Structures are given as structure tokens and as C-alpha cells.
Amino acid sequence: MSSVSETLDLAVRLARAAGGVQRERYETKLSIGTKSAPVDLVTEVDRRCEELIVETLARERGGDAILAEEGSRREATSGDWRWVIDPLDGTVNYAHGYPRFCVSIGVEHRGLRSVGVVYDPLLDELYHATAGGGAFRNGRPIRTSTESEIGRGLFATGFAYDVHRSENDNLDHFARFVKTARAVRRDGSAALDLCYVASGRLDGYWELKLHAWDVAAGALIVEEAGGRTSDLAGGPLPADGASVVASNGALHDAMLRLLANCAPDSPPRSPGIG
After folding, report:
1. DSSP letter string over 204-230?
2. How does residue 35 score in pLDDT terms, banded at 50, 70 and 90?
3. How does pLDDT run across 144-167, given as a tens digit for each residue?
4. Are 259 and 206 in contact, with CB atoms under 8 Å apart?
5. What is the CATH number of domain 150-259?
6. Nearest 5°: CA angle at 116, between 110 and 122?
7. Which of 26, 84, 166, 212 could be disulfide-bonded to 106 (CB atoms 3.0-4.6 Å)?
């Protein structure tokens, strides 16, 4: 049975190795393809980073389950661990030379988030957390902000790959936050946005239509930094990342009210009331 500390050490080593590949290939000529939509990109760097991580896990943790963005899947053959991997979170940014991307590795033990590691190779910032063990950036403890007024808050969000064709596009939420908060950012890396909430750089973050690999590491880092996570209705954060709200805790209810199309200091409207 592997320990949490051994699992963390391996996740950190894998994140740094994949980040090194990203740093080496950054702003070089890339082979770029698309997946579900013209804005859903994949590069050979995504695939190389996933191969590096998965091949190492096959050698060192061959009985663990794997769920990774670029298609690697493996059921557990022994033990109770599952690795949830985004080998390059922020591929559109990476493909355009926009410096906002990272490696995200979350590890579950018996279905519960246990280890989270997110590595930004350009800033050389490594975030990590273990369940009950706190959250850290480059080895130093981090905490969420203490902001309690939504009008003074800095928030972030993103838009799903089907934004060009879906009516459920997050634009209404975005507009309400722009009109209410101090500022809203949209930087294209869910894992980094979550880490920025955890470290107090952002006061809150929300997004729709994510996936398990987008949130597996960052959600744990937020929670261990003293923050709060949920779905858009305030319920438990979905394991598949279908919707996510993350905050410093103090602003969470106000965020939920805005997302429900209410004033931030008003109770949510009941279904069916115009």
C-alpha cells in the first residue's frame, strides 16, 4: 500500500517532468489539431506530457487507475488509487504562446480527493495539497483571501468549448459579475484559476462544463487553503467537473446568489417565480 507522502512525491516529480517538456517546447513550432470543436485544441506536447506521466505510472504504480484528458484510461488492478491527469491545462494558451498553462495531477484514494499537484513551468510555481495536510506553493503554506465584499472582489471564469453553439454559455453569469465585482478575469486555465483562489490572488472562480481532470487537483488545493467549493446550486462539487464554484468562503454565498440571477445580498429566487 502506497502512502500519501509517497504518492505526493511521485505526483510532484511527474508534474515537474511534464512541465519541463512544456517549457522546452514553449513558443516553438507545434503540430496542432482539434478535438470536439475548432477551439478545443491538442498539440503533440499535450500527448507527450501524458505519455511521460502514464508510462512512469505504469512502471512505478502499475496497479493504480488512471483517467487522463488525452485518452489514457486504466482500471485499478490492485489498491484503491486513481490518478486524474490534465497533462497540459491551457492548451489554447500554449498553442498561441500565451503564458498561462500548467500540469494538473489529482490523486484519489478510495474515491476521495487525497493529493493535488499543479505546476506552472514558466513561473516555476508548484502548488500542492494533501487531504487534511494544508495547501502550499513552492513549499510555503497558502491561504485564501479574507475579502468579504463582492464589490471589492477579483474573480475569474471561463467558457466551454461549445460556446459558439450552446445557449448555456456562461455569458449571463459573466455579465452579472462584471457589473457587480471589482473585476473579472478569463485566462483559460481552470487549474491555475483554482490555485489562485487558494493563494488569495483571486477571491472566487466559477465555470461550467469542465471535466474531472480540470478540477481534481485544484479543488483540493482550494479546500486545504481554507476555501470552499461547490456546484452552482451550492451542493457538493461534482467529481466530473460539470460545474464548479470556488471561493475564499466568505464570498461563496454571494457568488451563488449572483449565479442564480439574484442580487448578492438577496435570497435566491424560488423556481418558477419570474
Report:
1. EEEEES--HHHHHHHHHHHHHTT-EEE
2. low
3. 999 999 999 999 999 866 667 777
4. yes
5. 3.40.190.80
6. 155
7. 84
